[in-house]
Amino acid sequence: MAYFTGRDVKIWVTTEHLSDGIKFHQVGGKKLLSTRINVNAVGEPTVAQSLECIIPSLGNAGMNNWAMPDITGVDVSIGAQDEDISFMGLRNVGKIEVKKDTSVSITKKKSDAGFTLLFQGKTHSDVSNTTHGNHSARYGLVANPTSEWMAISDGTVDPKSTKGDMGSGSNQSFGYRVFVELKPGTSGGDDGEVLVIPNCHFMDYSHTLSNESANEESFTLQSQVKPFIWNGTKAGALDTSAYTGKAVLCTLASLM
Length: 256
What we know:
Elements: E1 2-5, E2 10-15, E3 22-27, E4 30-34, H1 47-52, E5 53-55, E6 71-85, E7 94-109, H2 114-120, E8 141-142, E9 151-152, E10 176-181, E11 194-208, E12 216-223, E13 228-230, E14 234-235, E15 242-243
Antiparallel strand pairs: 1-6, 2-10, 3-4, 3-5, 6-7, 7-12, 8-9, 10-11, 11-12, 11-13, 14-15
Protein backbone atom coordinates (compact mmCIF):
# COMPACT_ATOMS: atom_id res chain seq x y z
CA MET A 1 0.00 0.00 0.00
CA ALA A 2 1.26 3.49 -0.86
CA TYR A 3 -0.17 6.88 0.06
CA PHE A 4 0.50 10.08 -1.87
CA THR A 5 -0.56 13.63 -1.08
CA GLY A 6 -2.18 15.73 -3.76
CA ARG A 7 0.95 17.79 -4.34
CA ASP A 8 2.99 14.65 -5.10
CA VAL A 9 0.97 13.25 -7.97
CA LYS A 10 -1.26 14.05 -10.92
CA ILE A 11 -4.35 11.94 -11.46
CA TRP A 12 -6.36 11.15 -14.55
CA VAL A 13 -9.49 8.99 -14.36
CA THR A 14 -10.80 8.26 -17.85
CA THR A 15 -13.16 5.89 -19.59
CA GLU A 16 -11.75 2.97 -21.59
CA HIS A 17 -12.90 4.57 -24.86
CA LEU A 18 -10.63 6.84 -26.90
CA SER A 19 -13.18 9.57 -27.63
CA ASP A 20 -16.31 9.14 -25.48
CA GLY A 21 -16.57 10.41 -21.91
CA ILE A 22 -19.37 10.74 -19.37
CA LYS A 23 -21.16 14.02 -18.77
CA PHE A 24 -24.17 15.70 -17.18
CA HIS A 25 -27.42 15.65 -19.14
CA GLN A 26 -30.11 18.12 -18.05
CA VAL A 27 -33.72 16.92 -18.42
CA GLY A 28 -36.61 18.82 -16.86
CA GLY A 29 -34.42 20.34 -14.16
CA LYS A 30 -32.90 16.96 -13.27
CA LYS A 31 -29.34 15.91 -14.02
CA LEU A 32 -28.79 12.53 -15.63
CA LEU A 33 -25.71 10.74 -16.93
CA SER A 34 -24.93 10.75 -20.64
CA THR A 35 -22.10 10.06 -23.09
CA ARG A 36 -23.05 12.48 -25.82
CA ILE A 37 -19.89 14.49 -25.77
CA ASN A 38 -16.63 14.04 -27.61
CA VAL A 39 -14.06 15.11 -25.05
CA ASN A 40 -11.06 14.03 -27.10
CA ALA A 41 -10.12 17.66 -27.63
CA VAL A 42 -6.53 18.82 -27.75
CA GLY A 43 -5.62 21.45 -25.22
CA GLU A 44 -7.77 23.49 -22.89
CA PRO A 45 -11.32 22.12 -22.57
CA THR A 46 -14.07 24.41 -23.73
CA VAL A 47 -16.38 26.04 -21.18
CA ALA A 48 -19.17 23.63 -22.15
CA GLN A 49 -16.90 20.62 -21.73
CA SER A 50 -15.67 21.85 -18.35
CA LEU A 51 -19.23 22.27 -17.08
CA GLU A 52 -20.57 19.04 -18.54
CA CYS A 53 -17.76 16.52 -18.34
CA ILE A 54 -17.51 14.18 -15.33
CA ILE A 55 -15.07 11.60 -16.73
CA PRO A 56 -13.03 12.44 -19.87
CA SER A 57 -12.12 10.00 -22.60
CA LEU A 58 -9.04 7.77 -22.74
CA GLY A 59 -7.66 10.09 -25.41
CA ASN A 60 -7.42 12.90 -22.82
CA ALA A 61 -5.11 10.96 -20.48
CA GLY A 62 -1.92 12.88 -19.79
CA MET A 63 -3.24 16.26 -20.89
CA ASN A 64 -2.57 18.74 -18.10
CA ASN A 65 -5.86 20.53 -18.59
CA TRP A 66 -7.82 17.29 -18.15
CA ALA A 67 -6.07 16.18 -14.94
CA MET A 68 -8.37 15.76 -11.93
CA PRO A 69 -8.28 19.00 -9.89
CA ASP A 70 -8.13 19.56 -6.13
CA ILE A 71 -6.66 16.18 -5.16
CA THR A 72 -6.08 15.83 -1.41
CA GLY A 73 -4.66 12.32 -1.26
CA VAL A 74 -4.35 9.04 -3.17
CA ASP A 75 -4.07 5.59 -1.61
CA VAL A 76 -2.91 2.79 -3.92
CA SER A 77 -3.03 -0.88 -2.90
CA ILE A 78 -1.60 -3.55 -5.23
CA GLY A 79 -2.08 -7.23 -4.47
CA ALA A 80 -3.39 -10.55 -5.75
CA GLN A 81 -5.97 -13.14 -4.77
CA ASP A 82 -4.46 -16.58 -4.17
CA GLU A 83 -5.94 -20.06 -3.93
CA ASP A 84 -4.52 -22.88 -1.82
CA ILE A 85 -3.62 -26.02 -3.76
CA SER A 86 -2.82 -29.37 -2.09
CA PHE A 87 -0.74 -31.96 -3.95
CA MET A 88 -0.59 -35.65 -3.14
CA GLY A 89 2.76 -36.65 -1.64
CA LEU A 90 3.61 -33.11 -0.54
CA ARG A 91 3.13 -31.79 2.98
CA ASN A 92 3.19 -28.12 2.05
CA VAL A 93 0.19 -26.35 0.60
CA GLY A 94 0.92 -24.51 -2.63
CA LYS A 95 -0.58 -21.23 -3.70
CA ILE A 96 -1.67 -20.22 -7.16
CA GLU A 97 -2.51 -16.68 -8.19
CA VAL A 98 -6.11 -16.45 -9.32
CA LYS A 99 -6.31 -12.76 -10.24
CA LYS A 100 -4.87 -9.36 -9.45
CA ASP A 101 -6.54 -7.16 -6.88
CA THR A 102 -5.63 -3.49 -7.22
CA SER A 103 -7.52 -0.61 -5.67
CA VAL A 104 -6.98 3.13 -5.66
CA SER A 105 -8.78 5.49 -3.28
CA ILE A 106 -8.92 9.15 -4.27
CA THR A 107 -9.86 12.01 -1.96
CA LYS A 108 -10.54 15.44 -3.44
CA LYS A 109 -12.33 18.67 -2.71
CA LYS A 110 -15.94 18.44 -3.81
CA SER A 111 -16.77 21.02 -6.47
CA ASP A 112 -19.91 19.55 -8.06
CA ALA A 113 -22.25 16.57 -7.96
CA GLY A 114 -20.47 14.69 -10.74
CA PHE A 115 -19.07 11.72 -8.84
CA THR A 116 -22.14 11.50 -6.61
CA LEU A 117 -24.27 11.20 -9.73
CA LEU A 118 -21.86 8.75 -11.31
CA PHE A 119 -21.95 6.42 -8.31
CA GLN A 120 -25.64 6.54 -7.38
CA GLY A 121 -27.41 8.62 -10.02
CA LYS A 122 -29.39 7.63 -13.09
CA THR A 123 -28.42 7.24 -16.73
CA HIS A 124 -30.39 8.80 -19.57
CA SER A 125 -32.35 6.03 -21.30
CA ASP A 126 -31.01 7.01 -24.74
CA VAL A 127 -27.44 6.10 -23.76
CA SER A 128 -28.10 3.07 -21.58
CA ASN A 129 -27.67 -0.59 -22.53
CA THR A 130 -31.12 -1.19 -21.03
CA THR A 131 -34.50 0.17 -22.06
CA HIS A 132 -35.13 2.23 -18.93
CA GLY A 133 -31.69 3.62 -18.06
CA ASN A 134 -32.31 3.90 -14.31
CA HIS A 135 -28.83 2.84 -13.23
CA SER A 136 -25.51 4.44 -12.28
CA ALA A 137 -22.24 4.45 -14.22
CA ARG A 138 -20.02 2.37 -11.93
CA TYR A 139 -18.95 0.00 -14.72
CA GLY A 140 -18.01 2.35 -17.54
CA LEU A 141 -19.08 2.17 -21.17
CA VAL A 142 -20.25 -0.55 -23.54
CA ALA A 143 -21.02 -0.53 -27.27
CA ASN A 144 -24.46 0.84 -28.14
CA PRO A 145 -26.14 -1.32 -30.81
CA THR A 146 -28.55 1.46 -31.79
CA SER A 147 -26.25 4.48 -31.85
CA GLU A 148 -22.75 5.61 -32.73
CA TRP A 149 -22.38 6.89 -29.16
CA MET A 150 -21.23 4.52 -26.47
CA ALA A 151 -23.79 3.33 -23.93
CA ILE A 152 -23.32 3.44 -20.15
CA SER A 153 -23.19 -0.11 -18.85
CA ASP A 154 -25.50 -1.26 -16.07
CA GLY A 155 -23.00 -3.91 -14.96
CA THR A 156 -24.89 -6.92 -16.32
CA VAL A 157 -22.45 -7.42 -19.21
CA ASP A 158 -19.46 -9.66 -18.50
CA PRO A 159 -16.21 -7.60 -18.54
CA LYS A 160 -14.72 -9.74 -21.34
CA SER A 161 -17.84 -9.11 -23.42
CA THR A 162 -17.93 -5.37 -22.77
CA LYS A 163 -16.90 -4.20 -26.21
CA GLY A 164 -16.32 -0.74 -27.59
CA ASP A 165 -17.35 0.62 -30.97
CA MET A 166 -13.81 1.54 -31.98
CA GLY A 167 -13.71 0.30 -35.57
CA SER A 168 -14.68 -3.37 -35.48
CA GLY A 169 -16.11 -3.19 -31.99
CA SER A 170 -13.66 -5.81 -30.74
CA ASN A 171 -11.86 -3.64 -28.18
CA GLN A 172 -12.49 -4.02 -24.45
CA SER A 173 -14.15 -0.98 -22.92
CA PHE A 174 -15.10 -2.19 -19.43
CA GLY A 175 -14.70 0.26 -16.58
CA TYR A 176 -12.31 3.16 -16.17
CA ARG A 177 -8.57 3.70 -16.39
CA VAL A 178 -6.64 5.45 -13.63
CA PHE A 179 -3.31 7.17 -14.28
CA VAL A 180 -1.18 8.09 -11.26
CA GLU A 181 1.76 10.23 -12.35
CA LEU A 182 4.23 9.53 -9.58
CA LYS A 183 7.23 11.63 -10.54
CA PRO A 184 6.50 14.65 -12.73
CA GLY A 185 9.42 15.76 -14.84
CA THR A 186 10.89 19.24 -14.83
CA SER A 187 9.48 20.00 -18.31
CA GLY A 188 5.80 19.94 -17.46
CA GLY A 189 5.54 16.30 -16.45
CA ASP A 190 6.36 14.75 -19.82
CA ASP A 191 8.96 12.40 -18.34
CA GLY A 192 7.06 11.41 -15.22
CA GLU A 193 6.71 7.79 -14.17
CA VAL A 194 3.06 6.74 -14.37
CA LEU A 195 1.20 3.89 -12.72
CA VAL A 196 -1.59 2.78 -15.06
CA ILE A 197 -4.50 0.79 -13.60
CA PRO A 198 -6.87 -0.35 -16.39
CA ASN A 199 -10.45 -1.64 -16.28
CA CYS A 200 -11.45 -0.30 -12.86
CA HIS A 201 -14.97 -0.14 -11.51
CA PHE A 202 -16.28 2.08 -8.72
CA MET A 203 -16.51 0.29 -5.37
CA ASP A 204 -17.58 2.96 -2.90
CA TYR A 205 -18.17 6.67 -2.49
CA SER A 206 -18.35 8.96 0.52
CA HIS A 207 -18.86 12.68 1.09
CA THR A 208 -17.53 14.57 4.11
CA LEU A 209 -19.07 17.85 5.31
CA SER A 210 -17.24 20.29 7.53
CA ASN A 211 -17.89 23.78 8.89
CA GLU A 212 -14.18 24.50 9.27
CA SER A 213 -12.73 23.24 5.99
CA ALA A 214 -13.64 22.46 2.41
CA ASN A 215 -16.09 19.65 1.73
CA GLU A 216 -14.37 16.52 0.49
CA GLU A 217 -15.39 13.41 -1.41
CA SER A 218 -13.64 10.05 -1.54
CA PHE A 219 -14.15 7.18 -3.94
CA THR A 220 -12.44 3.85 -4.53
CA LEU A 221 -11.85 2.15 -7.87
CA GLN A 222 -10.88 -1.51 -8.05
CA SER A 223 -9.36 -3.53 -10.87
CA GLN A 224 -8.57 -7.21 -11.36
CA VAL A 225 -6.38 -6.54 -14.38
CA LYS A 226 -2.63 -6.33 -13.88
CA PRO A 227 -1.43 -2.69 -13.59
CA PHE A 228 1.71 -1.53 -15.33
CA ILE A 229 4.26 1.30 -15.29
CA TRP A 230 4.44 3.80 -18.13
CA ASN A 231 7.42 6.09 -18.63
CA GLY A 232 5.25 9.15 -19.16
CA THR A 233 6.20 9.70 -22.81
CA LYS A 234 3.74 12.06 -24.44
CA ALA A 235 3.19 13.30 -27.98
CA GLY A 236 2.69 16.86 -29.19
CA ALA A 237 3.09 20.17 -27.40
CA LEU A 238 3.99 20.25 -23.70
CA ASP A 239 0.73 21.44 -22.21
CA THR A 240 -1.67 19.64 -24.56
CA SER A 241 0.05 16.32 -25.23
CA ALA A 242 -1.53 13.01 -24.24
CA TYR A 243 -0.13 9.63 -23.28
CA THR A 244 0.52 7.32 -26.20
CA GLY A 245 1.37 3.70 -26.92
CA LYS A 246 0.54 0.99 -24.40
CA ALA A 247 -0.78 3.52 -21.90
CA VAL A 248 -3.94 3.99 -23.96
CA LEU A 249 -4.24 0.56 -25.64
CA CYS A 250 -7.34 -1.45 -24.76
CA THR A 251 -6.85 -4.54 -22.61
CA LEU A 252 -6.86 -7.91 -24.39
CA ALA A 253 -9.71 -10.23 -23.47
CA SER A 254 -7.18 -12.91 -22.48
CA LEU A 255 -5.85 -10.61 -19.74
CA MET A 256 -9.21 -9.96 -18.13
